[in-house]
């Protein structure tokens, strides 16, 4: 079963604490675009609940603010039947259903497939074998770097099309979006 986990709980310190997933692009929240990219998959959004979006399940990392590995663990806990999982950031501006399909096809027998942009792996733009994710999560997930937890898994690097892996982390990114 294919499912999605969308991480939407960051503090956006570099942007003054705005709710990044609810920033709009063309009048739609970024989070809505990421949810659209997941099609009819069962989706868990990890972060505070936000109104006005398609029906999803909501979870919070333990402890709140515990970081992406703790958020991943919270999402996995609600998807025990999933065999393949898209792990996406809620502020991806160029992620589409085609992106997710491309990653699913590229993964093959590997543990995961990640977009690569400007020579860097985009850890929150990938598709993974659910069993590999579950096995990689440490007992103490809070404060652990995602690349440290997932970096030893077998990963297919998928070149991102221009803008496909773009997200909103800095004031410059926000200006680009607008």
TrEMBL record:
Keywords: Transferase. The keyword Transferase applies. Residues 4-152 form the MobA-like NTP transferase domain. It comes from the Bacteria. One of its GO terms (molecular function) is nucleotidyltransferase activity. SUPFAM superfamilies: Nucleotide-diphospho-sugar transferases. PANTHER family: MOLYBDENUM COFACTOR GUANYLYLTRANSFERASE. This is Molybdopterin-guanine dinucleotide biosynthesis protein MobA. The lineage of its organism: Bacteria, Bacillati, Actinomycetota, Actinomycetes, Pseudonocardiales.
């Amino acid at each position: 079963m294919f499912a999605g986990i969308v991480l939407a709980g960051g503090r956006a310190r570099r942007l003054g604490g705005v709710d990044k997933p609810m920033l709009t692009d063309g009048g739609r929240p970024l989070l809505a675009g990421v949810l659209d990219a997941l099609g009819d998959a069962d989706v868990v959004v990890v972060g505070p609940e936000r109104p006005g979006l398609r029906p999803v399940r909501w979870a919070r990392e333990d402890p709140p603010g515990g970081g992406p590995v703790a958020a991943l663990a919270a999402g996995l806990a609600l998807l025990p039947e999933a065999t393949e999982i898209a792990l996406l950031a809620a502020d991806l501006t160029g992620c589409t259903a085609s992106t997710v399909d491309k990653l699913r096809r590229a993964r093959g027998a590997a543990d995961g497939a990640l977009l690569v942009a400007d020579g860097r792996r985009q850890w929150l733009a990938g598709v993974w074998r659910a069993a590999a994710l579950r096995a990689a999560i440490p007992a103490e997930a809070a404060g652990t770097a995602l690349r440290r937890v997932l970096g030893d898994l077998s990963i297919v690097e998928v070149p991102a099309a221009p803008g496909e892996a773009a997200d909103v982390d800095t004031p410059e990114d926000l200006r680009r979006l607008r």
